[in-house]
Amino acid sequence: MDAELNDLYQQVILDHNKNPRNFGELESANHTAKGHNPLCGDQLDLYLLIIGDTISDIKFKGSGCAISKSSASIMTTLLKGKKIEEARVLFTKFHDVVTADTDTEIDEEALGKLAVFSGVREFPARVKCASLAWHTLLSALDNKTEEIVITE
């Protein structure tokens, strides 16, 4: 990744950390989940309002590092209005990007906003920070009540 693109991605992550979108509790939520990354101290509560098979609204609250908070912020902006199956597809795309080998070519155009996390794969400990919100999403979609704890 060239330095100019890397700088842009860092700015996007910092912006979403400083000004997270969809931050707060969603009182009308009918699906919720909690996530925790004990290695970094990230904690997340995720709230979804699902109507039919569509994520009508989504919010999060919690505390954590810049990667964790920006990942949750970007995730919520991408998922609002999406079908549940589309959310699962985006989870897979995201997970594939952050866990790919560092020499794997990334199709940044096809990934859209998710491409900002392609650099995370170079720092294995940070993958957990970036993926916490996404794993918590799967738990919320499946109506699981136990807290998601990212340890590996």
Which terms summarize this structure?
152 residues, alpha+beta, 5 helices, 19% strand
Characterize the structure shown.
With 152 residues, this protein is of the alpha+beta class. The protein has one domain: Sufe protein. Chain: A (Alpha-Beta Complex). The chain is 45% helix and 19% strand. It contains 5 helices and 4 strands, in the order H-E-E-E-H-H-H-H-E. It has a 4-stranded mixed sheet, covered by helices on one side. Strand 2 and strand 3 form a beta hairpin. The longest helix has 18 residues. The radius of gyration is 14 Å and the shape is globular. The two termini are 26 Å apart.
Query: For the report, how would you describe the main beta sheet?
Result: 4 strands, mixed
Strand order across the largest sheet: 3-2-1-4
First-to-last CA distance? 26 Å
Structural category:
alpha+beta
Strand-residue fraction? 15-25%
Stretches where pLDDT is under 50 for at least 5 consecutive residues are: none
The CATH class label is: Alpha Beta
Element-level helix/strand string: HEEEHHHHE
Overall mean pLDDT = 91
CATH topology: Sufe protein. Chain: A
Number of helices: 5
